Every structure is written in C-alpha cells, then in structure tokens.
Amino acid sequence: MKKALYTGRGGGGSSLQAILAAMEPELYSLVVGCQTDQPLYEAFPAKRVLHGDIRGAMLAKGEWASRWQSVLQQPGLKEKRSAYIHIPFCQRKCLYCGFFQNYSQLELENAYIDRLIAELKMSAGSPYLAVPVNAVFIGGGTPSSLSPANAGRLLKAIGTYLPLTNDCELTLESRIHDLVPAKMESWLENGVNRVSIGVQSFNTTVRQAVGRLDDREAILERLVALSGYNQATVIIDLIYGLPYQTPQVWLDDIALLKTAAVDGWDLYQLNVYENSALKQETDAGRLPAAANVQDKAELFAAAHRVLSGWPVAQISVCHWAKTSRERNLYNIMAQQGHTMLPFGAGAGGKAGDFSIMLERDIKRYMQRIDSGEKPIIMMTSSPVSAQLHDAVKNQIKLGYLDINQLAAELDPRIGELEALLSLWEKNGLVARESGIARLTVAGQFWYVNLMQSVLECINALLHGAWSWEMQKGVVQG
Fold first, then answer.
1. Is the dihedral of CA 20, 25, 29, 35 positive or negative?
2. Structural contact between residues 296 and 477, judged by C-beta atoms closer than 8 angstroms
3. Which end of the chain is less enclosed by CB atoms within 10 A, N or C?
C-alpha cells in the first residue's frame, strides 16, 4: 500500500526552492535524497515506488464502454503506436514472481486463444486502428508456454487484424525451457522477430533455488539454437540480488554475456514482494536472504564497470545492445507515452486521452468477450501535463535530463527543476555535460526515485498540487 507523506494544494507560484525548503526532514530525504559521499549506497533511505508515474483521475465505470467505442471511431493520428498482448499462463510459478495468474492447461489455453482472437477481431477495421502498429509485445505470464498450434493461431490473427508496419518489432517473451524446435519454428514462421527470454542467471544453483528448470549448459545451447535460425533478435533478462548470487557468481553471469548467442540484455534489480513465495522461503530460513539495497547497488556498479569496457551500447539505464539487431522499440515507445493497444486478460494500455486495464480474471474475461464487449476493468484519464511527464520519464530512463530542452519545448516554468538537479549533482547522482544532466552510475541505480521526484515536483510547480508518496509493504529494498 502507499502512504502519502504529505498531500496538499497550494495557490501556485511557489518556487521549487521554497517548496523543498518547507519539507520535513523525512520527506526531504525521500524526495531529494541524503547528503552522502557514498551515493551508490546511501542516496535515498528506500526505493519509493516500483515505477515512476503520476496517475490521472479514475473515470466513472459507466463511461468506460462509450469512451472506448468513441475513440475507436476517431481517425488515428499519424503517430508511432504499439500493441500489448497478454498471455496469462505459466508452467511453473517462480519464487520471486509477483505476476503469476494461471497454470497452463491445454483446454483452458485453447478457449483463451479463441477469445483473444475474437478480441483482436472486434476492433479490427475501426478508424482508430487504421494507423500501422510499430511494435507488438506478447507478454505474460509466459507466452512461450503456448502450444505451437495456439501460438501460430494467435500470431496469424495479429497479422490479420492489426495493421503492422513493414519493420514492425514483434516480440514474444519466453523461458529457456520452451526453446524447442516445434515452438521456435511456429513463432518464426508467423512473424516473431524478437524473443525476450527470462534467463535471470546462468548459474544453475541460483536458478534452481528460485524455481527455474534448466542448467547453465542447457541455457547456452538453447540460445545458440534460437540464434541459429537467424530470424530474430535474441534478448535475455538477468536479475541481480537473488539468493546464492555472490558477487563472483554475478560477475560470471556478466562475463558470459560476451560470448552467449544474444543481441542484448536487461539487468533488473530483484524486488522481493511481500506476499511472494521467495519472501516466505527466506523468512523461514530455507533459502539465504536476498541481497539488501547496498549489496544490489554494488552488483549493479560491478556490472557497469565491466560493460563500460565492452563494445556494446547502453540504450537505457537497464538495457544494453550487443548487436545492431536490437532496437528495444516497444519499451522505448512505452516510456515515451505513445498509444498502446491492449488485448488479453490483465493487459494494460493507453488510447486517446485515457489509460485502461482489462479484466484479469480469465473466466470473467472470456465471459465478457463472449458478450461482445471490451473487458475493461479500470479506466483513468491522462494526467495534467501528460506530455511533459512522458518526456521526463523517457529522458530519465535513457539516462539523462535536459531541462533546457523540456522548458523550451513544453513549459518554461520547469526551468526551476535546476534547483533539484543542483542538489543531485552535489549528491553524486547526476553530472553536468554540455548543459545536460547525465545520470551517474549511482543515479542510474536510483533512477526510479529520481523519476518519481521530478514528476511530483512538476506537479507542485505547475499545478500547485502535490502528493509525495512512499510505497510500503510491497517490496523490500
């Protein structure tokens, strides 16, 4: 749950310096950070949120269907756009996972894909969907758990009912265990050109402790097999902070990236969810504790030191490209706030001037599709200054903040953010370079805190309203 440390509304016109100066010490340390000579470890007292964001107002339930139908009848703007398609099935539940929905069952899977195709079809041909889609992301859950036949059916429907650009990035999330010929060939024959794989660690002990199946040798062999088709970009995720993951184990994982058959990778910090099986196992002493914030900070910095010497491109604070094949298009577009069309139980997206979430419960989702309705479960309006928020989130995720550009293009009042950047520069979180504030390694580790603080300061500056929040009881560290 979230605890609002201070919520209020001012008359506007207060300088950011005055707003920061009026903060209580506890709030100040959360928003601005702590003065320290070790910013990597001590920049903030805690991670504030999982994802930096300011949400708009909840729209009345009675408006949802009409708003969705209204936007479908509007001519789509000539803009980049993506689609997110959710597959809510997994063969197993990993200990650290906070997103598990349903175990894979072929009969249920068949029925679900029938409805997912029906959902794609019901919006096809509308004026809003006439604009080509630049990126499709099939996420989950574990999309690779689908049978080859169901994967093929879904992919054919995507090509039939969504207008795709010639260079559309079509990503499917997978686990190593599903990289078998029948499945890979079904994906590639039906348009998948990017596969994102949750490796988490190459180390067999670390993997099996949290519920992953395959050992180090199997991982490397199956990556070679997928890359050998020469038909798709191959991306893997690694997580730092897992039980048994010593600094040396982590550095061994990083070293393997140089020779592994991959085009790029993400390095993600472990979040230990309060209700996760991983927390239960560590609390009971059946697994060693996951790394604390300081240990995770050092693991991130250690990886950064190694990768900075390689001929690879860091294209966001947590993503690297090893070859020119990797574009990371969907993720960048999502951060920029482009239209994202959602399909499937539990999918979220953005269209027109609102964001939507679809029904998560798979049975209710299928019932609502059978009744011919978009199964919306939540709809919120875009926040005030949404374009500015999106620009800020995009810049920080890419590792910098250019206040002069944002002020010139969007609103001159945000030049006052220089007061915050000056404090962060003193605290070692950003470094000035040609008028741009670039995130240091410490700033990249704490980037979600920086993002949330900037968004909240913009709200205070532009709208005389603020709500400084700290997320508690959701994740550790």
1. positive
2. yes
3. N
